[in-house]
């Protein structure tokens, strides 16, 4: 399997560490064969004191044709517009839904020229995906479908996705103002492994060999338990 290093998503991770402003959200990810009882696990420590004591809750609901869902930036409350609602949404408590799909994140920022204010922010993506997904893979596909359609309105993020059978990690950053979609890579963590991320992009290589196939629906490449935006390597080269 041929691999190409793209120390760019990568690209895209330039860091400025200042003791006065540093924060450290942290996710640990555990595959089902790496736990004592066969459970998958995601821990999500959000370094945001203003959210202590808050527990997100949305009950399951049925929606009429034509119903719309308001999008408000999770951090600021800024109105980002509306998207069509789906016929049925699932119950979400905290960062897990009724099907035991869980999503966490850590922010790493990245190159500021790749940030945008138009589209769907990282927090809204998490909770929309939880409302609409029965598996971790479906949650990833929900992220990408929404970003391809509406754009991405946040900084660089690494996400954890889990369900009772699989755990995944995704690095993601936008393409800059006026460009929909995002630069992203997702990989399934092996069942017998543990992993984690804390305010730094984590994935540095892609299996871009002959086995990689185009998924036209998501406009991405797939090779086994890897998925990535089909233009991520070309975009990294474009940005130097």
Average pLDDT metric: 89
Number of strands: 19
> Percent of residues in beta strands?
25-35%
Global structural class: alpha+beta
Strand order of the largest sheet: 11-12-13-14-19-18-17
Helix-strand pattern? EEEEEEEEEEEHHEEEEEEEEH
C-alpha-based Rg, rounded: 17 Å
Distance between the termini: 25 Å
Total tally of structural domains: 1
In helices, the fraction of residues equals 10-25%
* Major sheet characteristics: 7 strands, antiparallel
- Low-confidence stretches are 1-20
Gross morphology is globular
User: What's the tally of helices?
Assistant: 3
Topology of helices and strands:
Blueprint: E1 3-5, E2 26-30, E3 41-45, E4 57-58, E5 61-62, E6 68-72, E7 79-84, E8 88-89, E9 92-93, E10 96-97, E11 102-109, H1 122-132, H2 136-150, E12 156-162, E13 167-173, E14 183-189, E15 194-197, E16 205-207, E17 213-215, E18 220-223, E19 226-229, H3 232-238
Antiparallel strand pairs: 1-16, 2-3, 2-15, 4-9, 5-8, 6-7, 9-10, 11-12, 12-13, 13-14, 14-19, 17-18, 18-19
Helix pairs in contact: 1-2
């Amino acid at each position: 399997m041929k691999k190409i290093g793209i120390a760019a998503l990568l690209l895209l991770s330039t860091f400025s560490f200042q003791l006065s402003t540093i924060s450290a959200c942290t996710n640990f990810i555990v595959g089902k064969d790496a736990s004592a009882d066969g459970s998958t696990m995601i821990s999500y420590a959000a370094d945001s004191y203003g959210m202590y004591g808050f527990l997100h809750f949305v009950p399951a609901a049925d929606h009429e044709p034509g119903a719309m869902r308001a999008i408000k930036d999770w951090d600021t409350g800024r109105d980002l517009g509306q998207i069509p609602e789906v016929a049925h949404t699932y119950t979400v408590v905290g960062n897990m839904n009724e099907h035991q799909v869980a999503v966490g994140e850590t922010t790493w920022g990245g190159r500021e020229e790749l940030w945008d204010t138009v589209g769907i922010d990282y927090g809204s993506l998490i909770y929309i995906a939880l409302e609409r997904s029965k598996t971790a893979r479906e949650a990833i596909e929900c992220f990408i479908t929404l970003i391809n359609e509406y754009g991405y309105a946040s900084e660089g993020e690494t996400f954890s996705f889990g369900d009772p059978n699989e755990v995944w990690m995704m690095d993601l950053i936008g393409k800059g103002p006026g460009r929909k979609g995002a630069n992203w890579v997702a990989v399934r963590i092996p069942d017998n492994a543990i992993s984690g991320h804390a305010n730094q992009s984590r994935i540095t290589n892609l299996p871009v060999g002959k086995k990689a196939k185009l998924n036209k629906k998501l406009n991405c490449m797939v090779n086994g338990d890897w998925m990535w935006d089909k233009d991520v390597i070309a975009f990294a080269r474009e940005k130097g």
